[in-house]
Amino acid sequence: MLIAAIIWGSAFVAQRLSLDSIGPFLFTGLRFLLGALVVLTMIVCVRRAALGELSNLEPGGVRELVGAGVMLGLVLSVSISLQQIGLQYTKIANAGFISSLYVVIVPLLGVLFRHRTGIGTWLGATLAAIGMYFLSVNEHFSMLYGDWYQLAGALAISVQMMLVGRFALRHDTLMLALIQFVTCGMVCLLIGLVIEPVSLSVLKRAAPTILYGGALSVGVAYTIQVVAQKHAAPSHAAVIFSMEGVFAALAGWLVLGETLTARALCGCALMLAGLIVCQVMPAWQRGRARRPQASS
Residues 56, 236: contact at Cβ < 8 Å? Predict the structure, then answer.
């Protein structure tokens, strides 16, 4: 999971560099279609039984699987497009940390569906909100234009993750991911072909960033996530994945020389603390509640 977080964080650099040679929609479309090809290869090589199970499904089951994957892909295309467009107007560190806010937003959205939300979630959300203020809002009380895009993208990815939690209980996760990535890739590619310039030279210049952002960030890192989360508590997984923002800031500094002010660094630290508290404190409270029952 830590490897996946490193790949996702450093992928923000590839996403930023791609903007010098290719439009955001074309990049996202090609990136996710390449990621879908990697996932398909994984299924054929490792999970061929999933293809056999698909052929044995009732027609209604196939339609349900495709419908769920298409819905996830549409929401994902909105989220990633907002993130990619916003990278033109903000720093990589800002994008990485704000995108990680889904760790806080998901349990908060659960309130709308009458899920129980403990004190740890509210405390984590408060720390994250204060941290985002220090990171994004300057002394003139104005927020970076690109940060609004990142926040909207984090909200969209939170909705997508809630839908994944619902659909993954009924469908094979890798098949669901494959349909999701193909849908996202096709939607963004079609938009890009209509509104963005495309040529062989453009694709050639953008090839390294597409390879990293697609094969590694989408295909490999997602597969690592699916496999690793079978052997880890959800709270531990969310904390490790929230390190994506840290690795994004580190990659932006190492590769592009981006630096942060002391105020922004303080904001990053508060956001990271909020993300961790949001996941660790509820798990700790559940553990304390189970211990007396076990002893009795």
Answer: no
Whether 83 contacts 32, CB under 8 Å: no
85 φ, ψ to 5°? -65, -45
Question: CA-to-CA distance for 186 and 51, rounded, in angstroms?
Answer: 22
Q: Say how far apart CA 108 and CA 121 lie, in whole Å.
A: 8
Q: Exposed/middle/buried for 1, CB within 10 Å: 0-12, 13-18, 19+?
A: buried
Total-model pTM? 0.82
Q: What is the pLDDT of residues 236-281, one digit of tens each?
A: 677 777 788 888 888 999 888 888 888 888 888 888 888 788 777 7
User: Measured between alpha carbons, how far is 226 from 223 in angstroms, rounded to an integer?
Assistant: 5
Paired with 259 in beta bridges are: none
Q: Is 281 helix (H, G, I), strand (E, B) or coil?
A: helix
Cα→Cα distances 24→127, 273, 296, Å: 32, 31, 58
Q: Would you give the end-to-end CA distance of the chain in angstroms?
A: 36
Q: Which residue has the tokens 């619902």?
A: 166
pLDDT at 165: 75
Contacts of 127 (CB under 8 A, 6+ apart): 270, 271, 273, 274, 277
One-letter identity of residue 29: G
CA gap 216, 221 in Å, rounded: 6
| Sequence-separated (6 or more) residues with CB below 8 Å from residue 78 | 153, 156
3 state DSSP class of 61 = helix
Instruction: Please answer whether residues 94 and 46 qualify as being in contact, where contact means their C-beta atoms are separated by less than 8 angstroms.
Output: no
**Residue 275 buriedness (CB in 10 A; 0-12 / 13-18 / 19+):** buried
CA dist 276 and 25 (Å) reads 32
Spatial CB neighbours of 186, under 8 Å, sequence gap ≥ 6 = 29, 33
Alpha-carbon distances of 242 from 38, 87, 267, rounded to whole Å? 24, 19, 15
Which of 218, 249, 236 has its CA nearest to residue 31?
218
